[in-house]
Amino acid sequence: MDDFTNTAELAQGSQKSPVLVIIEQHVLARTCILNILKRELTGFEIVEMATTSGLSWFSGRDIRLIALNIGDKEITDPAIEVSLAFLSEFCPKASVALLSNRDDEVTISAAMQRGVRGFFPKSIPVEVAIAGLRLVLAGGVYRPLPIVEQGGTSSLKALSEHLDVPEVSELHEGNGATTLVPERAMVDLTPREQHVLEALQLGLPNKLIAVRLNLSENTVKMHIQRIMRKCSARNRTEAVLRWSRQLNGHAHLRVRSS
């Protein structure tokens, strides 16, 4: 076995911790992913293996998520079809996430149609990938938004899902050049909005956030809408990303004291 870690020894470890599995044939890539996830997703036993055959060591374990790297292959590739069928049969309760070199809408839609809960192109920032994995682990679905064509030009709002740029509110043309004018900078969050956003960081769905903060689900939805508007975010994942970056000093988001 060329795995960096001895799979058999890992399988005999803590039988109580839920398991998150990384399946990647290249040793360097999968151990890098392993180290990142161990740091970011606590409370899980995170293991890595080269092929789906390594899952046999974890029969009976509580496997919550399997991240499978398909590289350049299409979803309709026979090898990928076989792997997905095996994962569905062997771990019916586990969510499946795909890592891919592709980011086209056809591939992503085909993956979703086959029950994949998360689709992660390798072009996305690691912060977005972590937030997406948290969402999948909480029972949600993560996929990049499609880039909508409008009059032959890609939608700037759709592009803002893929790029860490503010939404564009205006286009100014002058002296033969076109300048993108971003929306206003992110504004202050109230203490309650900060609490809701921190819960979003954990990947919690609205129902659990409501229980955690003793709020109604409608109130939680209202706070999330306000947070996304203040952060100029298109969705929950982007709001989490912008919040994470401001914690690291990359943005100017402040919390009001009253």
TrEMBL record:
This is LuxR family transcriptional regulator. Residues 182-247 form the HTH luxR-type domain. Gene3D superfamilies: 3.40.50.2300, Winged helix-like DNA-binding domain superfamily/Winged helix DNA-binding domain. GO terms for molecular function: DNA binding. PANTHER family: HTH-TYPE TRANSCRIPTIONAL REGULATOR YHJB-RELATED. InterPro entries: CheY-like_superfamily, EvgA-like, Sig_transdc_resp-reg_C-effctor, Tscrpt_reg_LuxR_C, WH-like_DNA-bd_sf. PROSITE patterns: HTH_LUXR_1 (PS00622), HTH_LUXR_2 (PS50043). One of its GO terms (biological process) is regulation of DNA-templated transcription. It comes from Bradyrhizobium valentinum.
